[in-house]
């Protein structure tokens, strides 16, 4: 995958000028696919429960109408899932500065998370089969001293996740733990 000349990787951003970075376009596709699947399954199960209940309470012989209603309900659920996945991607951003990694999510209920460099314990990168297909990775930043001990952010380009991992590793831990 090639990046546009305007695209800036995490390692190239100087700390003084760190700007908010949007998640890449393949992350939008993945968010919409996962939203569609979740919405379809949830709406299908809900439609089956409601359709079964209607058939038990008031059976008038319209089995095909009930099945058609359940399928329409499931397709609407998938469409809602696509829309929610797109919105989740559109309103997510990150930046790396001298303080640490900041992640911003949401529009109405905005959530900003700052992981100070001093709190970073270790970092993991996960790449599932679908993420590998899109060239994406999930960065997991394990922190010290908090109840919610890890920040899990999917949707990074693989190269950006590796660059962030390398930039966030504390200098004292770069000796590969060799004594």
UniProtKB/TrEMBL annotation:
Origin superkingdom: Bacteria
Keywords assigned by UniProt, alphabetized: Membrane, Transmembrane, Transmembrane helix
Transmembrane segments: 30-52, 64-86
InterPro entries assigned: YdbS-like_PH (IPR005182)
Domain YdbS-like PH: 89-147
Name under which the protein is recorded: YdbS-like PH domain-containing protein
Organism: Arenimonas oryziterrae DSM 21050 = YC6267
């Amino acid at each position: 995958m090639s990046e546009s000349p305007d695209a800036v990787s995490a390692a190239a951003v100087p700390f003084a000028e760190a700007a908010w970075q949007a998640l890449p376009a393949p992350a939008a596709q993945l968010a919409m696919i996962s939203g569609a699947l979740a919405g379809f399954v949830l709406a299908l199960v809900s439609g089956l429960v409601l359709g079964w209940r209607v058939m038990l309470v008031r059976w008038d012989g319209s089995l095909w109408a009930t099945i058609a209603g359940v399928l329409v309900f499931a397709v609407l659920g998938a469409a809602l899932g696509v829309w929610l996945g797109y919105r989740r991607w559109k309103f997510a951003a990150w930046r790396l500065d001298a303080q640490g990694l900041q992640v911003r999510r949401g529009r109405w209920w905005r959530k900003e998370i700052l992981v100070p460099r001093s709190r970073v314990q270790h970092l993991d990168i996960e790449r599932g089969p679908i993420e590998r297909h899109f060239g994406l990775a999930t960065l997991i930043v394990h922190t010290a001293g908090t109840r919610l001990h890890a920040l899990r952010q999917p949707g990074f380009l693989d190269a950006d996740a590796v660059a962030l991992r390398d930039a966030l590793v504390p200098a004292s831990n770069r000796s590969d733990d060799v004594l």
